[in-house]
Amino acid sequence: MARATWAIGLVLSGCGSTDLSVRLAKPWSDESPGVAVALAASSLLPLAGTPVVIGPDQALDLDFPDEAFDLYLAQHAPVDGPDLEACGARIGGPRVPLPTPLSSWRLNFDPEAGPSGLEPTPFSLDVRYNRCDPSPTCNSVRQDYRVLPWTGLGVTHLIWLPGGRWFLVAGPWLPEQPPGSRIGFLLDDGTVVEIGVGLDARVFGVAWDHDEKVYLSLAGGRLLVVDLTDPRAPIELTPVGAVGGRLASRPDGLVVHHTYGGPVTVVQQPAGLTLSGADFPATVQRLVMESPEKMAAFSGNRVWRYQAQAGAWAQVGETLEVDSASSLVFIRERLYAIGRTFGVIFDAQGQTNLPAPTGVTIPTSATELNGGLLVAGGIGTAALWRQESWCPLATPGVLSAFPAAATSPDGRRAAVGSDPDSSVGAPKVLIWY
Questions:
Q1: Band of pLDDT at residue 136, cut at 50, 70 and 90
Q2: Structural domain boundaries of the chain?
Q3: How far apart are CA 298 and CA 329, in angstroms?
Q4: Contacts with 140 (C-beta within 8 Å, 6 or more apart), sequence order
Q5: Mean per-residue pLDDT for 238-257?
């Protein structure tokens, strides 16, 4: 097992004639070990230096200008410790990003008021390995799975919800099967809670509005809303077209609908916004929206990425053959585009072609796992792109494909839903962490 490293305190020394010393207790318990990475920023000390990796029983000494500054502190898993201590960390650069932190905090220092307390803060800075790349290993990846009580159906959609729940949709996985679908929740303890509503149509798209509603797009352009406070009575809305389509949402509450290769229609508009289909590419094959600044789409077998500074969409990279199973995944500032013949990465360094992992012939879903790209595909195979190489992931049973994938907001848990396992006649949800 990898040796754990901790931060037992932080000592901040200010520049000038008067020294500033601030000692902070580590903000995690002894039962939650991990590597710490710290860095600071101010108007005179921008985020361009080398973050400090805190080892065992080690205080942190930093020099700051005599003005306000922010200190950022991130806790990483023990398995990342040897790589972090050996390679160090930096902001930006050519090497691979650090894995998603377990937890992160920010401290603000004001010369007159003194330091604030450490406040939990998402660690979205582009921190990468510095002197070397980490060791290519997937030994730390663990797996669990659940067999769902829906014989003959496959998991078609999967969404993470707060409170330790995954929202599931199961439906026909062969064209000749009846079109009915089932919906329910998978809890962290493995319990499946079925919503007592049988849908008489195939579900084409699902999106959570990051509040209390889950939208479902059904065949014939029908649109349902499941109220999470009372999910037993879905509300049917005005149809959004003649056929079912995909749904996408953002954390600010925006929900949009589009058919495959069709225009975007706004379904739910956040207060203060006046968006329409004209604010997106004219036709869309797939759309992903991580935030108002991080949006991407497949359109015309090309990747389009929203350029926040310009306030406009622009094509990036070369033509990529895509189909209804192709995926777009944001992991920090990188955009992964996975087409039929595998995919490419788009980041500040431009376009990088991904090699195809052994065994995953046709990718059918993709998501994030601990800062890496998890891709699941045909004949029940899966692999993790981590640290510039692929690691195969074991998949239990006799599976044909994984049509659905999702991750928790911190990236530490990824789930994929399968078609029926022929050995048990029912679908599975596999969870890696």
A1: low
A2: 9-129, 143-432
A3: 12
A4: 77, 79
A5: 92
Phi/psi at 40 (nearest 5 deg)? -130, 160
Q: E strands along 263-332, which residues?
A: 264-268, 286-289, 295-299, 302-307, 312-316, 327-331
Q: How far is CA 60 from CA 57, 63, 76, 80, 328, in A?
A: 10, 10, 16, 19, 39
- Exposed e or buried b per residue across 140-152, where buried means at least 16 C-beta atoms within 10 angstroms of its C-beta: ebeeebbbbebee
Q: In terms of C-beta density within 10 A (0-12 exposed, 13-18 middle, 19 or more buried), how is residue 121 classed?
A: middle
Place of tokens 């289909």: 277
Give the DSSP H/E element, type plus range, for residue 169: strand 165-171
- CATH hierarchy code of domain 143-432: 2.130.10.10
Least confident range of 35-44, 137-146, 164-173, 389-398: 35-44
**64: pLDDT strictly greater than 80:** no
pLDDT in the model for residue 6: 30
Q: How far is residue 157's CA from residue 150's CA, in Å, rounded to a whole number?
A: 14
Report residue 228 as tokens.
């999470």
Nearest CA to 287 among 320, 260, 316, 251?
260
328 in Cβ contact with 322 (< 8 Å)? no
Sequence-ordered strand ranges (E) for 34-93: 35-41, 52-54, 59-64, 69-76, 89-91
